[in-house]
Amino acid sequence: MSLTFTKLHPTFMAQASPIDLCALYDQALLEQIRRAMSQYGVLVFRGQQFSHDEQVEFARRLDGELHAKTSSAVLTKNRFGNEALTDISNVGGDGNILEAQDRRRMNGISNRIWHTDASFENPCGRYSMLFARNIPPVRADTEFADMRAAYDALSAELKTVIEPLHAHHSIVYSRHTMGFDFSPEEQAKLPGATHPLVRTVEGSDRKALYLASHAARIIEWEVPEGRLLLKDLIEHATQREFLCSHQWELGDLVIWDNRTTMHRARPFDDKQYKRELTRVTTLDLPRQAHIANKAA
Questions:
Q1: Which of 151, 209, 224, 239 is most exposed, with minimal Cβ within 10 Å?
Q2: How far is 27 from 10, CA to CA, in rounded Å?
Q3: Alpha-carbon distance 42 to 168, whole Å?
Q4: At residue 8, what are phi and psi to the nearest 5 degrees?
Q5: What is this structure's pTM?
């Protein structure tokens, strides 16, 4: 058995042929998915049926160690009992829609601005795997931006300027820009991290811009100049030719590479309709090291 992938956009993003990922243990097929991730950056798998534990275990099989230091974890205890299984929803532990002023909602609503998961950690996030468990009767898409194509389209002069630069990523900063502030105690748990502004990931010889709303400043520049550069690059990277939206269906699993894409949730009436998705994000660590550690 082998998978086939149908392109959804001229430069990135593809849909996989039918497969039951819960039952996928074949190393050749897992490696085929990894190669497709290197090629497309975003993959769509329809018709999945994951329990919470099955989603977590599949993520480990595919890509190794999991990210658990989320911003949600500093606000409240995870309702699933596993901080690696991020609750991307507008629903509380009682099953009811969160009140408009609930801090969990106010934190989560910032997912509607361009971001890349766990860039505020070191190591940062590699793959995110988002599973649709309950979707509203209205569209509530997730939109993606191809950061390799965006980099390719820059002028040679600008590429030379930005390639040596580094950005400090902070979810405290990005949430503040949206009017949500963590307490001093919460901020202490979210110090942020610094990463190169331009990255080349394994399995690809193409460079990508690595930035989004968490990118607070350029380390090598004065803050105002650095923020202007970041805003200009995000504006460039979110031109229509670099974007593709996913319209959710129940049972969809979408996997994306945070190092080569940005994404954002599109608005819907979250005070009327429930939307429940669960996300697992892996850390950008050498896979062979993870396998060796697990074997030990």
A1: 224
A2: 29
A3: 25
A4: -110, -5
A5: 0.94
